[in-house]
Amino acid sequence: AAITSPLAAMQARGLLEPDLARLAAFNATALQIEEMRSLCDAMRGAPTWDAYAELDWRFHQLIAEATANVVLVEIQRLVNGIRRYLVWGNLIKRPVGPPQDYH
Q: Which residue of 21, 42, 47, 69 has the fewest C-beta atoms within 10 A of its own C-beta?
């Protein structure tokens, strides 16, 4: 994370995540889909940005896990960790959490 930028992290995410979502759509279990829905509901009600970031991290990791491909899970873990450090760590956040309609 120390040798890259938020832009590079988001570019990597933009290349990786659509294909992860596609594979997850084919391979996700009913339990994983239900957990994704629960995480989305929890994110909408997150009381703080830190709580939201934690739920968001778990959501993206769960999508990777739903691909059933351990290599992609580890790649996502790396990209997600860098994104979390660079992007979420540098955002100026209001003291209250995200609004319920935050995407």
A: 47
Long-range contacts for 63-70 (Cβ within 8 Å, ≥24 apart)? 63/17, 63/20, 63/21, 63/24, 63/36, 64/20, 64/24, 65/32, 66/23, 66/24, 66/27, 66/28, 66/29, 66/32, 66/33, 66/36, 67/20, 67/23, 67/24, 67/27, 68/23, 68/27, 69/23
pTM score: 0.82
Q: What does the pLDDT look like over 2-40, one tens digit per residue? A: 788 888 888 998 999 999 999 999 999 999 999 999 999
Q: Side-chain half-sphere of 98: how many Cα atoms within 13 Å?
A: 21
